[in-house]
Amino acid sequence: MKKKWSVGIFLFNDVEVLDFAGPFEVFSVTNYPDQHADTPESNPFLVKLVSETGELVQACNGLKVQPDYSFNNAPHFDILVIPGGLGARNTEIYNEKVIQWISQRMGNVELMLSVCTGALLLAKAGLLDGKTATTHWASYDRLENEFPAVTVKRNVKFVDEGNIVTSGGISAGINMAFHVVKQLLGPEIARTTAKTMEYDITIE
Q1: Strand 64-65 to strand 69-70: parallel, antiparallel, or no bridges (unpaired)?
Q2: Which of 7, 73, 124, 170 is the most buried (most CB within 10 A)?
Q3: Which DSSP string do the residues of 104-162 spell out, in sequence order?
Q4: Which residues 6+ apart lie within 8 Å of 144 measured at CB?
Q5: CB atoms < 10 A from the CB of 170, how many?
Q6: Alpha-carbon distance 151 to 143, whole Å?
Q7: 132-160 confidence digits (pLDDT tens)
Q8: pLDDT tens-digit series, residues 90-117
Q9: Cβ-contact 152, 119 below 8 angstroms
Q10: Residue from 81, 99, 109 nearest 179 by CA
């Protein structure tokens, strides 16, 4: 029996599209090489979308997305992705329900991942205290100033702190997702996935 991971991606109004769609694509097209493609057995990752209410979300630039779950009915996730965007840094960082949910979920996930300014939400939840993290370059100073217990690393695609991985802005979430695939499944499957996506990345 091949190992499977359930992946939850958090959505909210004014979420940056590629922040969630990039990791969604990487995890969704990953396949075990000895399984028939496009079958439930072939994909190591079951990817679902979750929002606070489960209602339709309007992402940045007007893209409408229907989540699979709300906070109330979301199942267990092995991996949770917290994207960023205007909604993260202007609204959700002040949403106590969201911050508490992220904090609670940290207790039972294998990996907590953030993309772009999603790192601000992890920091607000106290998950980055004493750790090194990164975010979108335009929010380095905010992360550093508002959360002095976090060591901010600049000009990197992602920072791996074991069970928490933070990534830089927007497209950097794709690089982080490939890093996770490599860590969990090995470089060959990660390289095959990149080739499927025609994504130009060097995976050692």
Answers
A1: unpaired
A2: 7
A3: HHHTT-SEEEEETTHHHHHHHTTTTTTSEE---GGGHHHHHHH-TTSEEPPS-SEEE-S
A4: 150, 152
A5: 19
A6: 9
A7: 999 999 999 999 999 999 999 999 999 99
A8: 999 999 999 999 999 999 999 999 999 9
A9: no
A10: 81
